[in-house]
Design a protein that fits this description.
The protein has 334 residues and is α+β, with helices and mostly antiparallel strands. It has three domains: 38-120, eubacterium ventriosum atcc fold; 128-272, Type Iii Antifreeze Protein Isoform Hplc 12 (Alpha-Beta Complex); 281-332, SH3 type barrels (Roll). It has helices spanning 5-32, 55-58, 66-73, 91-100, 127-142, 247-250, and strands spanning 38-42, 45-48, 52-54, 59-62, 76-79, 86-90, 108-112, 115-120, 122-125, 149-156, 160-163, 167-173, 181-191, 195-214, 229-235, 254-255, 270-271, 281-287, 292-299, 308-313, 319-324, 329-332.
Length: 334
Amino acid sequence: MTQYPHRMLFQMILWLFPAMIILGGFDAKANDNITEVVRLALVKNVEVFGDDIFLADIASIEGENQELIEKIERISLGKSPLPGKSRRINADNISFKLKQNNIDLTSIHINGVQEIEVTRGFTTLTEKEIEQIVFQELPEVMGLDEDNFSIKEVKVANAVVLPLGKYTYTVTPAKNAGMSGKLLVTVVFTVDEKFTKKVFATVDVERYVNAVVLSVPMKRNQVIHEADIEMMKIATEKLPSNYIGDMADAVGNRLVRSLGKGSILCTEFVNMPPAINKNDVILMVAETNSFKIVTLGEAIEKGHKGERIKVKNLDSNNEVYGWVIDSKSVKVGF
């Protein structure tokens, strides 16, 4: 049979053409499966507000694979800086975190700057603002009624820097704080029930008590009548320890020296019998906010109410000084 080379060549081409189409189809499909690129555009300066820094906070992330984008957005780059502070993150840090989270780096293009400065959003409460908080809160916390107590001064050494968010505060006096004088107070700020910051304040609390004062000037040896005196609230720091706090203790007694109007009466100005005489058996009282100790003692010297006298502990024979409370009791320290 006669062979026709050209015809045979033509037949071979016709036979191979479908195979080429099929192979071309596989190549096209393979191209469709090439990993899609996700682009991260970094910016130079970023402000964050949470406790952690996420990739979504510092970069604009674009691409076709939404599932991959969401995974990248959730990747944590570490803790945020303290409020008002900053930290730097570079492209190498980001690549390391991507790899650590099993992201194929060949599918990622990082554009923009190579280093980012991340700052934590913050708000500042000034010393004056904190002092006002203490002025408002402390009277209720300590049960200070305005008739008998007043806050003269509050001093806060430093402002406080807090992260942005809803903040609350508590004001607490020191455990050993008294009711007046210089007190140490702690103010604790809490933001969104997580972040806490402590600041200290020094508070000067003034306590007022009733004291007997002259309503008219009087001369030595004059007898004190009820019309000559009145009660007045006076800060304890301005009172002598032996001031007279009851009009009945002054009425009927004579002055031992001349005094002007408004003078505070104390036992040394009035010829009145002492509350405790020498050698009287008395109760020695020592107490704190937590407990009270009472023991028998003997007065070594006489004294009026509020005066400081020497007493002896009848159990130990130790001699100490104390303040006369009344005709039976003397307050002593530990």
